[in-house]
Amino acid sequence: MTSILSTGTGALLAYQRAMSTVSGNVANIGTTGYTRQSTQLSTLYTGGVQVQDVVRIADELVNARLLDSTGELARLDKISTLSSQVDTMMSDKTTNLNSVWSNFFDSVSALTSTPTSSSARQAVLDNAKALATRFNQVDAQLDQMDADINASLKAGADQVNALTTQIAKLNGQIANNKNVTSDLLDKRDQLVSQVVTLTGGSTKTLDDNSINLYIPGGQALVVGTLTTKLTTVQDPYQASRLQLGIVSSGQTVVLNNNLIGGSLGGSLEFRSTVLDPTLAEVGRLALATADTVNQAQNNGVDLYGNLGSDLFTIAPPEVLPNSGNSMPGATLQASVSNIGAIDGSNVTLSYGAGGWTAKRADTGAALTVTGTGTAGDPLIVNGVQIVVSGTPANGDSYLLHSSQGAAGTLSVAFNDTSKIAAAKPVQVGTGTGNIGSATVDSLVVDDIANPALQTAVTVQVDGAGNYSTDGGTTWSPYASTNPATISVNGWTLTLKGTPSNGDTFTVTATGANSSDNSNLLSMAALDDKNVLNGGTVSINNAIAGLTTSVGSSAQQAEYAYSAQKAIQTTAQSTRDSVSGVNADEEAANLLFYQQAYQAAAQVISTANTTFQTLLNAVQ
User: Fold this and answer.
1) What is the rounded (10 degree) CA torsion for 198, 202, 206, 209?
2) For residue 123, is pLDDT > 80?
3) Domain presence at residue 596
4) Which of 95, 395, 414, 607 has the smallest CB count inside 10 Å?
């Protein structure tokens, strides 16, 4: 009789515990990260039942796949989100470069019809200012994104350190603890998931049930109860830019996006693959705009009759010393030597063995560098010339921003509309007594810097293929082809037809208030002139190419994110099917255990009745 009571009581307690476990599962059906628990029952040798254990239903491989997909999703989400912001900026009419570029050249083209019109000139100046302002704004927005990444790296490092400290503490509570609760393990898993969302990575479960946590590069963040700290350090060339590092054995190892994943790795990857190239390309476009428009301005004369001056001002390429260079070291000053050779890439210049070497900062690919660095023989690399002052030491290095940041410095140099150089600096008149059929085909300036360019010259021809520019004292043959060319003082006069002896053509400086639009026509042609990439791409097409490139990067990032989202959803569903709480299943379990509990209670009741019957029989 005692055995029946004992068996019934044991069963009652066992199924009560099982119902309690099921109730806990149901109560946590909406709790993120909760792992379903199950009561494991075993048979007693006496024939009864007992609770052997309450276990977490978890699959280590399934959880590892979910962890990996979670970190990768966070990385791609960050890249996609930030790339989309750049795409919106470059494609939206209110913020992009295309619209203001078109407006500027439309106003230049309009001025060619009325080159002395003050209102048309004001329109050119206003649109030039709008173009410069837009370059400034785009550069500022990209710089702000860089600053935001700095802030996110610092905040992310602090957050990771706080989380890993908690994980290490939980490791200490869990290790070799046979009575560890499932809640502690769930809490640790949640903390690990938060870290991996920031850094990517994986875990390794040890024999004592503690875990080690690693980032994708293999560096450990948590080893048992010990942690390794993430930190931010200043870029050796740009103190305003932060890098992410991990402190190991007292040394800080800088982490690039190949060594760390998650949202932090995504920020680093976006910065190196989208933000920096966009900053550099916007800067290259600004440099090219200033360079080509200023050249056109310098090739003409304004309404005062003076040679044209620069329309735009812009800072030259920047050379930044490594913070570890020798002191006082050398100073490097850069300027544009060939806008068509500038590709926008940042360049690392290193000094050693008495000479300079150069390589791309992003890929490490070697670049050709010529010159010695003197003013007469500057270093030349990728269209930039560099003059070195001071004495560099072996091992010193510098970062050349050939174009990055230049867009933020573009501005209009003057407010006086009369300074727009619409006319060419020289003009030609035909002698009133000419009797031949020769007429002026063109007058082209070959050398704007020639000091005698605007000196008046009368070209006299003799009808026999000779010309004189000094009143007939000296005669020189000109090409007998038709048209024929005559080059003097930095200009070339082209005649067509047949001149007669004594015919004259006089070249003089263009005076004030000229209605000539020749130089404006040359400036307007810059809209489609191939000046970049070795003279194969126009600035207009390069702007369109940048917009397309940024849009393509954003689209690819979105595709990658969407694909990873599907993978992560599948991984989460797989985990939930193993470890998640299913309401229907738990309801069935509860009903089963309830019936078993009631049956056990009935066993006790029956045993009690039988026992009472026996007692009554012996009384």
Assistant:
1) 50
2) yes
3) yes
4) 395
